[in-house]
What we know:
The complex is a heterodimer.
Chain A: E1 8-11, H1 15-25, E2 29-32, H2 38-43, E3 51-54, E4 64-67, E5 70-74, H3 79-84, H4 86-91, H5 94-99, H6 105-108, H7 113-119, H8 125-132, E6 136-141, E7 144-149, H9 150-153, E8 154-156, E9 159-160, E10 167-174, E11 179-187, E12 194-205, E13 208-217, E14 224-225, H10 227-233, H11 240-253, H12 264-286
Parallel strand pairs in A: 1-3, 2-3
Antiparallel strand pairs in A: 4-5, 5-10, 6-7, 6-10, 8-9, 11-12, 12-13, 13-14
Chain B: E1 3-9, E2 12-18, H1 24-31, E3 50-53, E4 56-59, E5 72-74, H2 87-94, H3 104-117, H4 123-129, H5 140-161
Parallel strand pairs in B: 1-5
Antiparallel strand pairs in B: 1-2, 3-4, 3-5
Helix pairs in contact in B: 2-5
Amino acid sequence: MQTPAAFEYERATSVEGAIASLERLGPEARIIAGGHSLLPMMKLRLANPEHLIDINDLGELAYIREEPGEIRIGALTRHVDLLGSDVLARHLPVFRDAEQVIADPVVRNRGTIGGSLCQADAAEDLSSVCTAVKAQTVIRGSGGERIVGMDEFHVGPYMTAVGAAEMLTEVRIPLRPGAGSAHEKVERRAGDWAIAASSAAVWLAGGTIADAGIALSAVGLTTIHLSRAEELLRGKAPSEELFAQAAQIASEDCSPTPDGRGPVDYKRHLAGVLTHRALRRATARAQGQEA
Amino acid sequence: MTINVSMTVNGEQVSREIEPRMLLVHFIRETLDLTGTHWGCDTSNCGACVVQLDGTPVKSCTILAAMCDGHEVRTVESLERDGELDPIQQGFHEMHALQCGFCTPGMLMTTRALLDENPDPTDHEIRVAISGSICRCTGYKNIVAAVRWAAEHETAARQETT
């Protein structure tokens, strides 16, 4: 039987209250939301918090809002709501692509975007999605908020920029014209972690790729941000040849390890194929043609 | 340290002193002695422990009982009423949708929630809904047929009453 080690439990009634509790209780206190990453870690004693602060009552952190020039997603927004959101599907279809293949519907009823990003698991899909669409995170402490981009948010495997007395409260995604995005994943069976996954976003202007964002899941110790492939795409007209070159970079710039999901050469191959498909689909969407 | 938790379980108000680390599945099975909910993989993969929390199916091995304080939990024991099986249970019976029966409580609570939200699901929608529940007798075909049976009988019953 797997049961977490003993801890003390309290429920937050406000964001300020949760942050005050984190400050008072010190680094052995952790926020719990959906719990579908933290509780499994606690059962395995990979996480041993002495205090849990339950934020599930903080409805003010559960929202998907369209604002001028950006989408704002509250940290407590659950996967089921990200999947169902028409606003997200319209502007950032990469979210619906990913949410359809994140865990299973029952897990998606509980897990949250904030928990997914804070877990900083390299195999987790929303981290590559948020990296590709150049999301910014809002981290709040008692002294106020700071805005951190995805490259700085994930500082290492299972490590984030969120300090001991801080919490992630919001994810902001800029909306720019000519956008298209897609997520491609291969898994062994429904609900499993990715063998590899690729998220891509492109922003077209006048027949060329003004900007691109690409990131990979499950093929390295952290989410792999493919900056070299993004540079290659910028300023060029989209084509199958160009996507194949970007896919080649994806195969080269990932660093998978062999495991039960496959050997290294297979995973590198997959990273390339999935990046090619994601770019093709993202571009078709940017051009108003669903691939 | 123990804490007091109070919640509604199958329509009944319950209140117990528990350790905060107690998982909902163990609270249901060992504290309340409702052993219909099964405890399977313990890793939120298999779906045997699915119960409804405020009407939403959740995996009770990956939720603390403390997190359910003030909420409403429904387990498989709530389905039968006054000696009458719920149509979803009847469907599983009619279509032989269980062999060993270990996954059945989770399957029932998951598909009951599906039909509450979507009274006429396609086979694909049923398969997606139960994709977080594993049947190692591999009887999915009959489970899908059972959910269809329940959907059709509930639709027919609704039409009779209107």
